[in-house]
Amino acid sequence: MEKMLSTEELILKAQSTGIDFGKGDPYNRLRYYTKIGWLPHMTRQKDSDGNIRGHYPDWVLERLVTIERLKAEGADNDEIAKEIETKNKYTNLLNVIKSKEIRTQLISYSTLILLLIISANEFGLINIGNKKSSLIEAFSAQGTNSESVEIVASGSAVVPKGHSSVFVDSEILTADAKVIITFTQSFSPATAYWVTNVRAGEGFELRLDTPLYYDTSFNWFVSK
């Protein structure tokens, strides 16, 4: 949910950053900027005391700083409007990328593409390198470029619906082994996952940041 600042809070914060509203009423400056499209319209809502007051999104403070900086540098209204339009496009793009749904889709698509490439390489449809699972080596190698990576175990498992973790058995696992995970489908609503609780000769635990909506399968690889 978008954080809001009351008009009074916005003015005080703006003044604390050095913005000089002049001798006039600061509210008039805000209304003027809103009228020419530099600021969003004020909305009325209850403050922490239950009083109905005008509020602006908290990012308006940064917008005010930008406007006053450009004015101090001698920019005219057209130049300021162009700068604001550019910032709006950038902000809108960031908001889209930050949304949980988009992040999940990006992770899912990236995982699917990676899995397809790995599968194609394993079946000889493409030649990424001389060693089996060389794509995994490229993604997981942490040493020098000349250090080889050997896949010693692999398999698939499922994170059950309503769970956020699963323990995968692997007797061949060593304490210094590297574990690579590739999901074969969306793991919504989770946005992150990691390997933990690695037990030599037993297996490892895959954890996600939130329980899943449905049974979700993944592939795992163990390398030296």
TrEMBL record:
<protein>
    <recommendedName>
        <fullName>HTH merR-type domain-containing protein</fullName>
    </recommendedName>
</protein>
<dbReference type="InterPro" id="IPR009061">
    <property type="entry name" value="DNA-bd_dom_put_sf"/>
</dbReference>
